[in-house]
Amino acid sequence: MAPRGGLDAAGAVGNYRIVPATETPGGRDGRAGGADGQDDQRDATAITVLAVLLTIGTGATDVASFTRLGDVFTSVMTGNLVLLGLAIGELSGALATHAVIAFAGYMTGVAIGARLVPAGETPGAPWHRAMPVALLVEFVLLAGFTVGWELTGAAPGGAAQLVLLAVLAAAMGTQSAAARGFGARVSTTYLTGTLTGVVAAWVTPGRRERLQSREMLLLLALAAGAAAGGAVIVNAPAGLPAIPLTALVLVIGAALLWNRRPG
User: Fold this and answer.
1) In the predicted model, is pLDDT for residue 15 greater than 50?
2) Collapsing DSSP states into helix, strand and coil, what is residue 171?
3) CA nearest 4: which of 20, 22, 16, 18?
């Protein structure tokens, strides 16, 4: 055992451990709050802003689908599975058809988005560089939905309703897959897990201080998008597609500009 004040095998002097430069607070070079920390904070802020915008669009699209496209969702597939089970129990062919169409459209969109944007982090970037490309595909789908929505007077029925439901669900599936390209675990569509994490953090001792504001913002964004969609669907239903389209255009533009910024 090393004498007091001497150097022991663990690299300690007396009661103090020698900390290598690579372990100093604020980064490996020892600069607290250095350039790396600032870049990380900037990236985190960019991810949050873009994810919030996409989530606002999600809330509005689910309002459109639930109120005008057959009482089903275009982003919450677990909810649609419940509705499918209800349809089977009630022998409701109409509800079953809508639930299946929404599910199939969503899966198609996920397949498209996943081919374009692989999951996982991109070193040195807040999101995968192909993410804007997948969002452009979503934009095309939303634009097609908007055309059909306007042609049907925002009240589609019959075959037109099923087609628009499939297209809108495919757009949400594409967005869900594209969001996997964020350099963080972020969902802009299915948020039950996000809500679970927020509540768990609040009730678990020692975890409250680690609760991120991003999760709360995403939940609020979903509610805000739904509220905006509800107000529009009541007063000016033809304008509802403008909510997700506007959010998506802002996100695509911001992501493309960010990708082109100098390193």
Assistant:
1) no
2) helix
3) 16
Segment 97-112, tens digit of pLDDT: 999 999 999 999 999 9
How many C-beta atoms lie closer than 10 Å to residue 44's C-beta? Answer: 15
Q: Are the C-beta atoms of residues 229 and 64 closer than 8 Å to each other? A: yes
Are 144 and 240 within 8 A, CB to CB? no
Cβ neighbour number for residue 47 with a 10 Å cutoff: 18
Q: Is residue 90 exposed (0-12), middle (13-18) or buried (19+ Cβ within 10 Å)?
A: exposed
Of the candidates 88, 81, 29, the one whose C-alpha atom is nearest the C-alpha of residue 190 is 81
Buried b (16+ CB within 10 A) or exposed e, 141-156: bbebbbebbeebebeb
Please determine, for residue 9, whether its predicted confidence score (pLDDT) is greater than 60. Answer: no
pTM: 0.82
Residue 74, classed as helix, strand or coil, is coil
Q: What are the distances in angstroms from CA 3 to CA 194, 222, 251?
A: 52, 62, 62
Q: Over the stretch 115-146, which tens digit does the pLDDT of each residue have?
A: 999 876 566 678 888 999 999 999 999 999 99
Nearest CA to 118 out of 206, 197, 178, 184 is that of 178
Q: How far apart are CA 72 and CA 184, in angstroms?
A: 29
What does pLDDT average to over the chain?
A: 84
Q: How far does Cα 162 stand from its chain's mean position?
A: 25
The full set of domains in the chain, from first to last, is 52-260 (1.20.1250)
- Per the CB < 8 A criterion, the answer to whether 54 and 243 are in contact is no
